[in-house]
Amino acid sequence: MASEFEARLRAVSLRVTRPRLAVLAALHDHAHVDTDTVIALVRAELPRVSHQAVYDVLRALTDAGLVRRIEPAGTSARYEARVGDNHHHVVCRSCGAIADVDCAVGHAPCLTASDDQGFMIDEAEVVYWGTCPDCATRRIDQ
Ligand SMILES: [Zn+2]
Ligand SMILES: [Zn+2]
């Protein structure tokens, strides 16, 4: 797997560094995690990495398109390694759990605007809000 992450970094002309590899590996195993979780996961492997170093890596990987940053309203920024497929997210209003939802159409912008106002629209940001199975079960139990 490490060599696959090295190839991804090289493909976007980013230098291969251990923190970058560790962040990619963490996001490959854990989707939609916040910055603190990424830091904890990376430090489990590289104990001496600073917060700032992880922030910098996340920014570089996001700018390069290897990592996607999402920020549903009312939550902190989350990161994931699943990029380039225009998938959407469903967010639990109760506990904040996030899951992937495949693009409804299969390609961006997914939704056709009723009036594009003359804009060339290339993306629609869709967030589905609801109640996750765990929270739904808990509600029934109460
Ligand atoms: Zn929930
Ligand atoms: Zn996702």
From TrEMBL:
Q: Which cofactor does it need?
A: Zn(2+)
- Residues annotated for Zn(2+) binding in this entry: C92, C95, C132, C135
Q: Which GO terms describe its biological process?
A: negative regulation of DNA-templated transcription; regulation of secondary metabolite biosynthetic process
Q: Which GO terms describe its molecular function?
A: DNA-binding transcription factor activity; transcription cis-regulatory region binding; zinc ion binding
Looking at the UniProt record for this protein, which Gene Ontology cellular component terms does it annotate, in alphabetical order?
A: cytoplasm
Database matches in Gene3D superfamilies: 3.30.1490.190, Winged helix-like DNA-binding domain superfamily/Winged helix DNA-binding domain
> Which InterPro entries does this entry report, sorted A to Z?
FUR, Fur_C, WH-like_DNA-bd_sf, WH_DNA-bd_sf
Cofactor binding: number and manner: Binds 1 zinc ion per subunit.
Q: Which family does it belong to?
A: Belongs to the Fur family.
What name goes with this protein? Transcriptional repressor
- This chain's source organism reads Nonomuraea montanisoli
